[in-house]
Amino acid sequence: MKFLIVLSAILAISAAELQLSEEQKAVAHANGALCAQQEGITKDQAIALRNGNFDDTDPKVKCFANCFLEKTGFLINGEIQPDVVLAKLGPLAGEDAVKAVQAKCDATKGADKCDTAYQLFKCYYKNRAHI
């Protein structure tokens, strides 16, 4: 359920607002730490991304976004999994709101799977007010 924490970061909604359980928060934190280590990004880079700072276009940051979204099940090989996103976010944010953001963001494609994940993260973040 780490994806929920990452997604909450994408949507700039706190974990409390998404009503995540302590277990979900712990899983999200562990996945974030694993992906940060795997991709070699700093804590500051991860925090900047979580806070909506998209100035750092380091490929490692983009691959961190991909790793995290794949661990949540939102992405598989650079392809968004709309049913998974809706199933996991719908109960937390409302299905209609999630579908509205999906309509704006899910066709987003980048140069590769890491860039696609980064662009999706950015789109969901910018449209977070709708969720």
TrEMBL record:
The keyword Signal applies. The keyword Secreted applies. One of its GO terms (molecular function) is odorant binding. It is found in: Secreted. Gene3D superfamilies: Pheromone/general odorant binding protein domain. Its main location: secreted. Residues 1-16 form the signal peptide. Keywords: Disulfide bond, Secreted, Signal. GO terms for cellular component: extracellular space. It comes from the Eukaryota. It holds the Pfam family PBP_GOBP. SUPFAM superfamilies: Insect pheromone/odorant-binding proteins. InterPro entries: PBP/GOBP, PBP_GOBP_sf. Transmembrane segments: none annotated. GO terms for biological process: sensory perception of smell. Belongs to the PBP/GOBP family. This is General odorant-binding protein 56d. It comes from Drosophila mauritiana.
